[in-house]
Write a structure and sequence with these properties.
Length: about 130
């Protein structure tokens, strides 16, 4: 999984024209740490995924989508666990991380839909 995600991150970085050093600076990590991330030698991308997506202007789905034929295994997790604690605790065995991120993404979409509905109601009142 780390190699696949690292390869996707590399492809997006190259498409944006960033060097490894430039993106490492944006993530506030060393170039060698960033290189290990791209080579799939570490799963530290988990700690930087939001910054990576922002810097590369990509959606989380584009980086985390499963490979064809890949079966994702999920572990049970408490709904009350904080997201950041979950990321740290599951660095070595992070099967449920993509599921948590998807849940957050879906929540943001709901908020966006509610805001659009509210703004439309304001327009209709005029």
């Amino acid at each position: 999984m780390n190699k696949t995600i690292g390869k996707r991150i590399r492809n997006f970085r190259e498409a944006k024209g960033f060097s490894q050093e430039e993106l490492a600076e944006r993530l506030k990590i060393s170039r060698s740490a960033y290189q290990r991330l791209e080579n799939g030698e570490t799963n530290s991308w988990i700690n930087h995924i939001e910054s990576i997506c922002t810097s590369l202007e990509v959606n989380l789905d584009d980086i985390l989508k499963p490979e064809e034929g890949f079966v994702q295994m999920n572990r049970d997790s408490s709904a009350n666990e904080s997201y950041s604690n979950n990321m740290v605790q599951n660095q070595t065995n992070n099967y449920n991380l993509p599921e948590k991120l998807i849940e957050q993404y879906e929540e943001r979409l709901k908020q966006k839909d509610e805001e659009i509905k509210f703004l439309k109601s304001l327009i209709e009142k005029k």
